[in-house]
Amino acid sequence: MENFLENNIIRFVQILRSLGIPAGTSEAMDALTAVQHIDLTDQKQFHAALKATLVKDAVHDPLFNSAFTKYFVESPFRDLQLDAKKEYVQGMEEAKKELEFQEQPLDLDQQYLDLYGQLSEESRQQFKEFLKKTSEGKNVSPKFKPIVENVIKGALEYHRTHSNLPQLIPVELTGEEEIDAVLHEISHDQEMVDLYFQNMASIQEEDYQEATHLIRKLARRLASRISRRYKQSSKIKRIDVRRSIRAGIKYGGTLLDLKYRQKKVQKPEILLLCDVSGSMIKYSQFTLQFMSGLAEVLPRMQAFAFAESLEKIDLMNFSMEGLAQSDRWGEGTNLNISLQQLLKNHHGLLKPQTVFIVLSDTKTMEPDAAFRQLQFVKRKIKEVIWLNPLPGNQWSKYSTVKLFQQQAAMWECSSLAHLSNALRYQLG
């Protein structure tokens, strides 16, 4: 096997990981071993070998197929991908110049720049005229910039939900030009966009029923995984077939080095806190729906919603429509007050075996006070997991993200794919 093929397979695994497909070192080694036993001139065999070793969940099949067809291409097609990525970068730079307040660029996430770049020329002109008018005036000062940013974000969110804009598959760029060009093409593959990879905030109400079916399917799969959780063991308990087969490869497939596992006795106790402020309510709807599907195998799971106060959620009777129709949510966020109420009224839920999950974009009033409250909570429990819908490559721009990362294992969670992967890794 030529070195260039080995390198290409490793780079392809890197692309899959950037797309959220859990392919690690062991899967890469399996793929390198598998391709030694096929006809490399037969594309179908090559595709089947990589798919069999790198994909563990059928829900990732469409994304794998898209990545395969876009990565393993001839040089002229790769040049077109690079040109398309350069054109996109130039477009984003132009968008940043157009979205300025008093010659200062607005602090907008990549998702908002993508939304702006997809607008018609007429709509973009309306944004530019608004920014020009708001930047002028005798009493207009730079302190109005955050207000203008919120207005622009709100307008872009309106276009997201009311316009037929194409949805982009969330990807994590690597900084390597060629790989990022492939990821860029995959992210814009409209044949690939479905509810699994779509940003939860952009899922329309008419798709709720289909999204609910998908969530139930994912929740059942994770529930099954949790209910039969095993850990590696040196004692002769139960054979770990996958690890035993992998260990037997060096013996020509003979199972000489058997691996074992034993059941984990204790299931985690989950305490879920969901932000239901205006920008977060859709993410909370889908997350609570997902967690309600796990309630049967995690009977000691408790859930709360918070904005400026805390309210208990009945997971067994939860409905997305009920949460959306509540007039108590959709306002600002005050995590500090909510954690105070949790400590005062529900302190019995904070146990050494409790896994505390927070779903929020970290944008809260009194962030320093909230940090101190979270720090106090963490001393009483097992661990803190933070699900953050903001794009991971934008986290460094937010001081609150850096602040809460000191106390929590933070996961990007803007799509059902992200949510499923994070919970499977942390709970399964």
Identify the overall geometry.
globular
Low-confidence stretches: none
Quickly count the helices. 17
> Which class best fits the helix and strand makeup?
alpha/beta
CATH class of the largest domain: Alpha Beta
| Topology-level CATH name of the largest domain | Rossmann fold
Provide the β-strand percentage band. Answer: 5-15%
Q: CATH-wise, what's the superfamily of the largest domain?
A: von Willebrand factor, type A domain
Across the major sheet, the strand order is 8-7-6-9-10-11
The proportion of residues forming helix, as a percent range, comes to 40-55%
Biggest sheet features: 6 strands, mixed
Give an overview in words:
- The chain is an alpha/beta fold and 428 residues long.
- The chain has four domains: 3-72 and 174-193; 77-162; 207-263, no CATH class; 269-427, Rossmann fold, CATH 3.40.50.410.
- The protein has helices at 3-18, 25-34, 43-54, 61-71, 75-98, 110-118, 121-135, 145-162, 177-187, 208-227, 241-248, 281-292, 320-325, 335-345, 367-380, 399-405, 416-427, and strands at 100-101, 104-105, 230-233, 238-239, 260-263, 269-275, 302-306, 310-313, 354-359, 383-388, 409-412.
- The strands form three sheets. The protein has a six-stranded mixed β-sheet with strand order 8-7-6-9-10-11. It has a three-stranded antiparallel β-sheet with strand order 3-5-4. Strands 1-2 form a two-stranded antiparallel ribbon.
- Helix 1 (3-18) crosses helix 9 (177-187), helix 4 (61-71) crosses helix 9 and helix 10 crosses helix 12.
- The longest helix is centred in the first third of the chain and has 24 residues, at 75-98.
- The radius of gyration is 24 Å and the shape is globular.
- It starts with a helix and ends with a helix.
- This is VWA domain-containing protein.
- It holds the Pfam family VWA_CoxE.
- InterPro entries: Uncharacterised_CoxE, vWFA_dom_sf.
